[in-house]
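Example 9 (inverse folding). The structure is encoded as follows.
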C-alpha cells in the first residue's frame, strides 16, 4: 500500500534532504560484542565482567565469550585531558577485550588492516559506556583506538598475551589516517 503523497507537506528546496538512515552497522570479521547484564536495585548496581565457566544459564554467554581467549593480563587506563584520541594501534599475537566502566563513555574506532580478511579496510564504530555495557573483543590485525566522550574517561581491558618489553607486539596506524579520520567526529544533527 503506497502513501498518498498529495497529503504530504511541500518542503522548500533548500531544506530537502534524504531520510535518516537506520541501516545495520558495519561489523568487522572476528570482532565480537557482548552486552553485559546490569543488576540494578535501590542501592546501585552489580555487573559481571569475566567468568571462566558458567554456573547458571544466565551467565553462559559471558563464560563462552572468554572460553577460547583466556586473559593473560588485566589493565586499566584513563584519559583526563580534553580532546585527546587514543590510537590507533594493532597487535599480531594477542586479542584485546575492552570494557568502558561507568561513568565513562567512549567512541571506539576499529579498522581491519588484515590483507587476507573478508572485511579488509572496513571500519567499525562502537559507542561504549553510559549504560551501553559491552565487552568488545578485538582480534589480531584489527587496529583500535578510542575518543573519550567523558572527562575523565576510563578503559578496563584484558589481553590474551602478557606484555613483553623485548617483543612489544604493538604497531601504529596514524589516528588521522584517511580511512578513519572523519569517524572520530561526533556528528551533529
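The amino acid assigned to each position is listed next.
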Amino acid at each position: 500500500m503506497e502513501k498518498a503523497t498529495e497529503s504530504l507537506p511541500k518542503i522548500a528546496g533548500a531544506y530537502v534532504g534524504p531520510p535518516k538512515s537506520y541501516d545495520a552497522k558495519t561489523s568487522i570479521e572476528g570482532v565480537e560484542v557482548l552486552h553485559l547484564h546490569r543488576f540494578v536495585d535501590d542501592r546501585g548496581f552489580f555487573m559481571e565482567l569475566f567468568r571462566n565457566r558458567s554456573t547458571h544459564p544466565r551467565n553462559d554467554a559471558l563464560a563462552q565469550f572468554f572460553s577460547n581467549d583466556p586473559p593473560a593480563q588485566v589493565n586499566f587506563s584513563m584519559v583526563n585531558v580534553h580532546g585527546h584520541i587514543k590510537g590507533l594501534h594493532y597487535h599480531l599475537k594477542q586479542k584485546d577485550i575492552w570494557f568502558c566502566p561507568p561513568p565513562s563513555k567512549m567512541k571506539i574506532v576499529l579498522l581491519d588492516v588484515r590483507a587476507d580478511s573478508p572485511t579488509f579496510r572496513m571500519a567499525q564504530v562502537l559507542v561504549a559506556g553510559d549504560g551501553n555495557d559491552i565487552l568488545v573483543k578485538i582480534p589480531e590485525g584489527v587496529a583500535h583506538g578510542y575518543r573519550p566522550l567523558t572527562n575523565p574517561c576510563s578503559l578496563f581491558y584484558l589481553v590474551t598475551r602478557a606484555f613483553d618489553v623485548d617483543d612489544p607486539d604493538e604497531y601504529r596506524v596514524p589516528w588521522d589516517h584517511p580511512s578513519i579520520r572523519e569517524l572520530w567526529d561526533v556528528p551533529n544533527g
